[in-house]
Design a protein that fits this description.
The structure is a single chain. The chain contains one helix and eleven strands, in the order H-E-E-E-E-E-E-E-E-E-E-E. It has one helix spanning 13-24, and strands at residues 28-30, 35-38, 47-51, 55-57, 60-61, 70-77, 83-91, 93-99, 102-109, 122-129, 132-138. Helix content is 9%, strand content 46%. It is mainly β.
Length: 139
Amino acid sequence: MMAQAQQELVSDPEIYEKDHFRKECKVAEFGEGFVTRLDINNDGLVDAVTNRGELTCDGEKARSCNDDGCPNNFYVQVKEGGYLMIATATIYSYDFVQRFGNMVFQFKMHPRFCDRTDSEPCVMTVRVRGTKFVTISSK
């Protein structure tokens, strides 16, 4: 029988992640774009996205980033109070745009995520439904 773990809610993703990196780094500095607050799942509650590309740890900016991009954590706010981290994605960047009445992400990612070997970034359109990412298209 397999045990299922319940993920803990965090009271605020910004405080949670900044506290984590302040413990990990002797000196942690956070850029203006470290946390973005927006309603990513169209439920009327303000959610959060954190971008490690905006972290400078001990003088080294974006040390978690590589050729695939930078890790971003996606948190949704729940009605019960608090936030649930629903995904981590390593991406170059994203746009948050309206498509067919819903807000969706357009992730710019390494081409291999679209099963390509050229150098043009993959553009993946993703909608968040509840706590799940649903890929709409990729090119």
